[in-house]
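The protein record filed below.
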Amino acid sequence: MTRKKQFKYNILNKCLYNGYHVLCFEVIPINQTTLYNLEPIDLGKGSVESLSSYSLRLAEAHSLTAGKLVGRKVAVVLNKAYLIKSEKEGGSRFYEVAYEINGLGSLAKNWAQALVVLTGRKRLEELTLIRFNEWLPDRGLLRSHLAWCPACLEEWKEGNKEVYEPLLWNFKVVTNCMIHQTQLETECPNCLKTIQILSRKRRIGYCSRCGAWLGRLELHKEITSGEHLKWQLFVIQNVQELLATSSRIIVELSNAHITAAIKDMVNCFGSKRAFSKEMGIPETTVRAWLDGKHRPSLESLLKICYSSDLRLVDLVSGKYEGVKYSSRIISSDKGQIRATRRHFESQHILNMLLGYLNNKSLSMREVARRLGFDQRVLYNHFPDVCKAIAHEHRLWIQKMRKIRIDASCKLVREATISLLDQGIYPSRRKVESILPSAISLREKMLQKTWKETLFEFHY
């Protein structure tokens, strides 16, 4: 978007010349932002919107697709070559992990800072969880795909309110909307596909795959009553209170307070074993918390607070007077939540990994998913085999990319010659119109083939 440069003027002095008052002034250019200074929704409240939601609304306000906002604006500020390459040549690897822009890590921090530069809008880091990264681990924290309340979307649209995606919906531990007494949906009702948090053609409230509107008032997934209702109400209230926490209180939040509270809980139960059994948490995990080797996940902290009649903010800030056990059962629709420990059969898993070594099309992430273990666990036990699988997969990707590019270049050349034979100038749009939709001349090698073919025929 091109904008006229604006200026302000400072009067230096005025004097009298030939009977006229003459003003002497200096011209100072006003700093202009590239994008609109869009206001975030519910900033400072528990219902604050997520940074991914803000990014999508920002793209919509400038009549841009999300992909163009990422590739032409954010990527330039971040100076990330892989994002610029993704815009030019395609690829979806960034969008597979784009949910992390709402999280705790460097991607969230860099993304928020880039949007501050582009819009001039301050406090955008509060649309993420960056301010809690000192004590909150990212393990099991955020969803990798979209979850939403269809009734909320429909009511906002019908009431002519801004439709957005609250940061609250991104938490894995939040499974319900307490306003409408229903479960959050995770699949498009039209195409039954999951939806990425951010993708090239994503629009708020619409499926990025089939384009269907996701809002509706006729709800079928009514939540169960009883303990699960109480648990979800407790979770949502505490998470919203955390998101609404002011900067002054955030300074007081500390992992040391969490460790002290867990020690009090263990003393209340009499032993680590009794505490871990009642909470459904492995004793080795509790021991690691107390030794400072690991930090409790958000769900674990909420379980402890729920069973102790504590507010999460009070536990993390150390503002509580003693700990008492309330004996409340934490349950889900599928029954009581209890952590189970898997038996690790080293030889069997090694044999499985060696079998996957021959299947080069599988990434190490996919192999870990199929085996049902975390990648880090497998790398710790079998580093050489895991590295070999990852290496073979990279070579396979490079090979398949070359095959795809060679085939695409052949199609581009044939399409260009076909148009020339018909007496039609083979412009980029003309060539792309007769190619498969997956092929784009934005890709450098294909563009090079197109230009070389034109040059060959003296165009």
Summary: The chain is about 45% helix and 5% strand. The first strand starts at residue 7 and ends at 17. The chain has three domains: 43-223, 238-336, 347-459.
